[in-house]
Amino acid sequence: ESKLFNGSEKDISLSSSKLTKKESLKVQKKNYREEKKRATKELLSTITDPSVIVMADWLKIRGTLKSWTKLWCVLKPGVLLVYKTPKNGQWVGTVLLNACELIERPSKKDGFCFKLFHPLEQSIWAIKGPKGEAVGSITQPLPSSYLIIRAASESDGRCWMDALELALKCSSLLKRTMIREGKEHDLNSSADSTHVSLYGLLRANNLHSGENLPEIERHHFKDQDMYSDKSDKENDHDHEESDNDGLGKSEESDSDTSERQDDSYVDPEPIDIKETTYLEQSHEELGEAGEAAQTEVVSEENKSLIWTLLKQVRPGMDLSKVVLPTFILEPRSFLDKLSDYYYHADFLSEAALEENAYNRMKKVVKWYLSGFYKKPKGLKKPYNPILGETFRCMWIHPRTNSKTFYIAEQVSHHPPISAFYVSNRKDGFCLSGSILAKSKFYGNSLSAILDGEGRLTFLNRGEDYVMTMPYAHCKGILYGTMTLELGGTVNITCEKTGYSATIEFKLKPFLGNNDSVNQISGKIKLGKEVLAILEGHWVSYEVTISDKKTDVSEMFWNPTSDIKQRRLPRYTVKFEEQDDFESEKLWQQVTRAINNKDQTEATQEKYVLEEAQRKSAKERKLKGEEWTCKLFDQDSVTGEWHYKYADTRPWDPLNDMIQFEKDGTIQTKVRH
Question: The PH domain covers which part of the protein (predicted)?
């Protein structure tokens, strides 16, 4: 008799169809493993074989932002592959059809609309692409548990509905039929002609709605597990909110700008904009890894300067008004120093696309840790910015063809406050904040405290991640070896999702060994429940994460040489286009002297800048004038600083063309 088992038709005799009592469990397990391998091999064969295509055409898919994107859709037995274009194979995602339902969706717009969805609102997406891709091409965010799709005409839509119904209910039968049919085709035939003839074959066999399927196939057929028994662990419990299928507000969202888009794929049009000229940074100092890079032996000449400095201070005193010797200065501004956190801004691009809230928090923590390994050799302190000083730079993301812009300004001198704003609307994130830099002297040590917070926003989700900073601790000023460490507890909190992370930067104990240098420990929590533990070192060594439920540990972050080589390239403003108060141009004489190891000239040039600042402050006081910031405003109620030209709208891929910067304002070129 004929039986359909796991999508495979086999001739099994009555005597062999029943397991005898003598058959061992070992044999049963072997058969089970072979059957799983066969099912997986059969599925992967149909996905990768270019001749096995049911249908392929352009379809419009509605994203989570209620706007439409035109994508190239390829229907194969059991899966729907979504690409940006048919030519270069920019894979976006793979929909697993075995758990999906299909329904026509009413719409007042032209064309034909239908919905593919999981009835229990679980994820419909595969975790990997047809070629093993872990991350798909960047588009506007797509829902996790459903897709709303629009075909160009009713006839095309009905055709897609029929084909999807067939793929939903009869994927294994399709695989066998198409594999047999594919062998009869010339291997060099085009994919287009193949899928047309295959679809014609299905029409001829009248299999679209499954009306003529044998009774045994209708009752006993089951699609195989798409990726093995482990696939269910990737179910997305943090799915996007279901859309409203009524004809009220949801239907109004169909009237979006994408309906004006041409029906065929076109390359981006040439863009004529006036923007700042950025040049790739030619030199970058990363410093060395380990404790040796964080220590410095002070020369006898410089020791006398330190003693002179110490006569001006007393334990517990704030050092913000104390003039520091130039030999301890790193030749760049503090505004520049704050940009070190964005060489791995691509981690934030990945986090913005992550559907699961717990995984998003993990990616945010990983990005946060990536900002600490870049440091100068020895103990160096950046310049204290001059009031009104600004700094601009950007990073280019090769994978998403986007730019992350960084804008900073010194908005207050006493107390010294630096405000900053970071934006990459195309990849869906921005970050803003302000830092009050304070220094405290304790006798043989001092601490540089960064008081303030940063606010990371994922534009497509309306989520804010509020984070604080560790402090820098320098010891061995009077005796011993001068050493720099990070200390304090950092908090990263997302109020909307309820997830939070705490990271403790530990100072080296008095009797500690080398392994106790640069240690961190942390927790990731949902409410009060601890989900994971972080342990390791913030620089030169790896940080591990341990899942509390599974008790499994894995490497979480390790700034290896390979990781450092893949960091995003930074671009700074062309020197000739900088104004006089931009960091590089403002401090150019001091920087030149420090690089030439001429401490006398560096001190003189630094004094010129500081004296000019004091003179300007006195003049404003005599005239009764208040200082007005160029790029930032202060909220009169909260006291927070905000970038004047912030644009926190989610990126509209159909109308927004490119993000650019001109004269300190970050702008977006739009089509309409």
Answer: 52-169
Work out the burial of residue 232: count CB atoms within 10 Å of its CB; fewer than 13 is exposed, 13-18 middle, 19 or more buried.
Answer: exposed
User: What number does CATH give the domain 279-667?
Assistant: 2.40.160.120
CA dist 440 to 321, 372, 383, 450, 473, Å? 11, 22, 17, 11, 10
Q: Left (φ > 0), alpha (ψ -120 to 50) or beta: where does 594 sit?
A: alpha
My answer on whether omega of the bond before 86 falls inside 30° of 0, hence cis, is no
What value, to the nearest 5°, has the Cα angle with vertex 622 and ends 619 and 438? Answer: 65
Yes or no: say if 96 and 223 are a contact pair by the CB < 8 Å rule. Answer: no
Condensed to tens digits (0 to 9), the pLDDT of residues 468-525 reads: 999 888 877 666 677 788 889 999 999 999 999 999 998 877 665 666 677 899 999 9
Whole-angstrom distance, CA of residue 81 vs CA of residue 125: 10
pTM beyond 0.90: the answer is no
CATH number of 55-177: 2.30.29.30
Residue 285: how many other CB atoms lie within 10 Å: 12
The structural domains of the chain, with segments of one domain joined by +, span 55-177, 279-667
Per-residue pLDDT tens for 208-264?
Answer: 333 333 333 333 333 333 333 333 333 444 433 334 433 333 333 443 333 333 333
d(CA 574, CA 280): 9
